[in-house]
Amino acid sequence: MARYVVDVMPKPEILDPQGKAVLGALPRLGFAGVSDVRQGKRFEIELEGDASDALLAEVREMAEKLLSNPVIEDFEVHAQGERA
Description:
alpha+beta; Mth169, Chain: A; 32% helix; 27% strand; PurS-like_sf; PurS
């Protein structure tokens, strides 16, 4: 079984109201020194077969076509337990 992770984040120039809300709440909860927060999405995908470059390419295609909005989001794909 091959496992891949897709991390999707708003592009740096895109306003992130959820991240700003978290940033505003942290000091009220006693957490000081946080200068910025960006909130994104994480997808964990299991595919039949062993991890391979072909499966990695397929997951990248999933991220491009469905899991992210390329106009406002960036994504990163890696095999679970690795960072690409």
